[in-house]
Amino acid sequence: MPVAPGTTLAALQRMPLLDPVDQRILVCHALGISRTALITQSDRALTEDEAARISALLQRRLDGEPVAYLVGKREFYGLDFVVGPGVLIPRPETELLVELALERLPPRGRVLDMGTGSCAIAVAIAHARPDAHVTALDVSHDALAIARRNAELNSVTVRCLHSDWFTAIAGETFDLIVSNPPYIAAGDRHLSEGDLRFEPAGALTDHADGLSALRAIVAGAPSHLAPQGWLLMEHGYDQSAAVQALLAARSYTAVQSWHDLAGIARVTGGRRESQG
User: Fold this and answer.
1) pLDDT tens digits, residue range 92-138?
2) Rounded Cα gap, residues 49 and 37, in angstroms
3) Are 143 and 117 a contacting pair, CB within 8 Å?
4) Number of Cβ within a 10 Å radius of residue 87
5) What are phi and psi of 109, to 5 degrees?
6) Keyword set for this entry (predicted)?
7) d(C-alpha 160, C-alpha 46), whole Å
8) Is the pLDDT of residue 205 over 70?
9) Helix H segments across 198-239?
10) Which of 5, 28, 56, 66 is the most buried (most CB within 10 A)?
11) Confidence at residue 276, expressed as pLDDT on a 0 to 100 scale
12) What 3-state DSSP class applies to 234?
């Protein structure tokens, strides 16, 4: 997608090359300017180097690369997060999980985020509740490097541990366990569409029926939950009934699902009455 040197910013904005929001974000990133500067410098003509940088970014977006990966960041819960191909891109619907967690977190509560990825959930909770003790787990060393960077970037304390689910926290208990695990079934067409094509497959799918990670969390959480502790999990649009059944079979109480702003049952959880 060539953009000619000498093209003004005003003319560039009138070119219907991409989604207007994506195009604005990428142009600002390529030039290192703000959205305000994009408007106030509308007569600015692009140099050859600037035109080449913009052209390359726009083409990569046309080829499907996520905007968040192209600019290296994404906003979530009002905070900025570093992202890259090693982690999922934080999505607005996951903010529901953070809100539900904050509602159920006691003073100085202990929180465990399983499969943390970019650490968006854990950092958002720690930022909103500085009194909380937050632990984040991930099996990916690459993800943990990004997670630690995001905790530092947002000036919060999160203990980030390498762990295959519960292995690194043997003997520990928490007031709240949250997770946005891989829940897309193997072969689902969405895995070959849009941004998902570029995100880490292991963070998206369990390479099975979409419920294996959720089963592991539901089964292992009771021995790591304090009495009255909550387990909250994000899942797919059509999985709420199945996840409720998993929780009920393990004697969780107050089992229920919550809907996101699109009306989709996005998070399901339950409370552990006693340790077991």
Assistant:
1) 999 999 999 999 999 999 999 999 999 999 999 999 999 999 999 99
2) 19
3) yes
4) 29
5) -70, 160
6) Methyltransferase, S-adenosyl-L-methionine, Transferase
7) 44
8) yes
9) 201-204, 212-220
10) 66
11) 44
12) strand
Residue 19, SS3?
Answer: coil
Q: Which two tokens stand for residue 219?
A: 């089964």
Under the banding of pLDDT at 50, 70 and 90, the label for residue 274 is low
The answer to whether 72 and 89 are in contact (CB under 8 A) is no
| Contact criterion met (CB below 8 Å) for 158 and 121 | no
Binding-site members for substrate are 180-183
Give the three-state DSSP class for 14: helix
Q: Which residues are annotated as a binding site for S-adenosyl-L-methionine?
A: 138, 165, 180
Q: Which residues does residue 174 pair with via DSSP β-bridges, in sequence order?
A: 225
In the numeric block, which tokens belong to residue 193?
């569409």
Tell me how far apart the alpha carbons of residues 58 and 55 are, in angstroms, rounded to a whole number. Answer: 5
> In the structure, what pLDDT confidence band is assigned to residue 1 with cuts at 50, 70 and 90?
low
Most confident of 14-18, 37-41, 207-211, 256-260: 256-260
Q: Cβ contacts of residue 245 below 8 Å, gap of 6+? A: none
Give residue 109's pLDDT: 98
3-state DSSP helix/strand/coil % of the chain, to nearest 5: 40, 20, 35
Q: Of 94, 104, 165, 167, which is closest to residue 132 (Cα–Cα)?
A: 104
Residues facing 135 on adjacent strands: 112, 159
- In degrees, rounded to 5, the angle at the alpha carbon of residue 89 between the alpha carbons of residues 87 and 92 is 145
**Which residues are bridge partners to 112 per DSSP?**
135, 177
Q: In the prediction, which pLDDT does 13 show?
A: 86
Residue 255, both tokens: 């089992």
- For the chain, the distance separating the N- and C-terminal CA atoms, rounded to the nearest angstrom, is 59
Q: State the amino acid at position 186 in one-letter form.
A: A
Read off the amino acid at residue 149.
R
Per the CB < 8 A criterion, the answer to whether 169 and 137 are in contact is: yes
CA dist., res. 169 & res. 116, Å (int): 14
